[in-house]
Design a protein that fits this description.
There is one protein chain. The protein is α/β, with parallel strands linked by helices. It folds into two domains: 237 residues, 3-Layer(aba) Sandwich (Rossmann fold); 77 residues, Sandwich (Gamma-B Crystallin, domain 1). 25% of the residues lie in helices and 26% in strands. The chain has eight helices and 15 strands. The strands form three sheets. It has a seven-stranded mixed beta sheet, with helices on both faces. Strands 9-8-11-14 form a four-stranded antiparallel beta sheet. Strands 10-15-12-13 form a four-stranded antiparallel beta sheet. A hairpin with a 3-residue loop joins strand 8 and strand 9. The longest helix has 19 residues. The chain is globular, with a radius of gyration of 19 Å. It starts with 11 loop residues before the first strand and ends with a strand. The N terminus is likely disordered.
């Protein structure tokens, strides 16, 4: 397969991924992340679709508004990994985030001193991606931004500006009902106290808009109160965006089995839906098997944990104090 893939006969489910640094990608890439995606494409700087991959950079490397630093793990990375694994659809990522931006700078027509044409470039890239394959469909807009608006007066203006941004994007992309998903910013050491309560109200103010939680996730450098998620935490956050899309767009059953790295169902968590998963997959989504301390099963789900193809543990309900050595987990769902 060549880097430039001819896809004239295949529809692409397109996701526009915009926002600031945690969408652009600041979390360090690790060995588990490297290599090509199975069924995900990224829109490149030649206005073409190419097979997505990860080496020294990930999906935001072709952003037309990026800052001059390596574009490492961001929300779109684990999001795409999980969506491609759970669907048979061809996934297309249009990543056009920029680190260190405020909501005001993303407004259509903004011409202040920090003008990088953020809105205009996002629309241009999305339109070009759609035009490159007429069978493609814009499935959702993924947004992660807010660290720059956490204090007054910006936090009070945030929802009004966010609603205008979504309305303008839907109008200019001729997608009046396209799904919009935002995510909370990090909560460690008191971060996000101004903006997260606003983000959690998004469904009350914007139609077909949802949010995902950053509960239990932490910084890549907690000692310095760094605003960027750690690598495992970033994978977990992207996975949570995917869970919301799987339920709303692909009609996967709500819930699943959630693995936590702390007792009492707290800490960093990753949810998996029905399927068969090697232990490497759990790490790719944000948690290593040896980190798992508690497991929560939503209604209708059960799990078998295997080692060398032999069952070592079965769960049909929540388990606090989980401890098992396994190489595969099989998750089943019965309505």
């Amino acid at each position: 397969m060549s880097a430039q893939i001819k896809l004239t006969n295949k529809a692409i489910d397109i996701y526009l991924c915009i926002g600031q640094s945690n969408m652009a990608g600041m979390s360090p890439i690790e060995d588990i992340d490297r290599g090509p995606f199975d069924n995900t494409l990224v829109f490149n700087d030649k206005n073409e679709w190419e097979q997505a991959s990860c080496d020294t950079e990930t999906l935001n490397k072709y952003s037309t508004v990026k800052k001059p630093h390596l574009q490492e793990l961001g929300v779109s990375f684990a999001f795409a990994k999980k969506i491609e694994s759970q669907t048979r659809n061809l996934i297309g990522i249009v990543a056009n985030a920029r680190s260190g931006t405020r909501m005001e700078w993303w407004q259509k027509g903004y011409e202040g001193e920090n003008d990088s044409n953020l809105y205009e470039e996002a629309v241009k890239q999305a339109k070009a991606a759609l035009a490159a394959n007429p069978k493609s469909i814009l499935k959702a807009i993924l947004w992660h931004q807010g660290e720059g608006d956490n204090s007054s007066p910006n936090k009070e203006l945030y929802m009004e500006r966010l609603k205008k941004l979504v309305d303008d994007l839907r109008t200019d992309l001729e997608a009046p009902d396209v799904l919009f998903i935002a995510g909370e910013v990090g909560k460690w050491k008191g971060r996000g106290k101004g903006i997260n309560p606003v983000i959690r109200q998004i469904s009350d103010h914007i139609s077909h808009a949802y949010w995902v939680s950053s509960d239990g996730l932490t910084s890549m450098n907690i000692a310095k109160n760094n605003p960027h998620f750690g690598s495992a935490d970033m994978r977990a956050l992207g996975s949570r965006y995917a869970d919301k899309v799987l339920e709303i767009i692909y009609k996967k059953p709500a819930g699943g089995i959630t693995f936590y790295n702390e007792a009492a169902f707290k800490g960093r968590s990753v949810q998996l839906k029905a399927g068969k998963y090697p232990i490497s997959w759990l790490e790719k989504m944000g948690i290593k098997p040896e980190e798992i301390v508690s497991v929560k099963l939503d209604q209708g789900y059960k799990a078998d944990f295997l080692s060398d193809k032999k069952t070592v543990c079965k769960l049909v309900g929540n388990k606090d104090g989980f401890s098992a050595s396994f190489d595969t987990v099989i998750i089943k769902y019965n309505e």
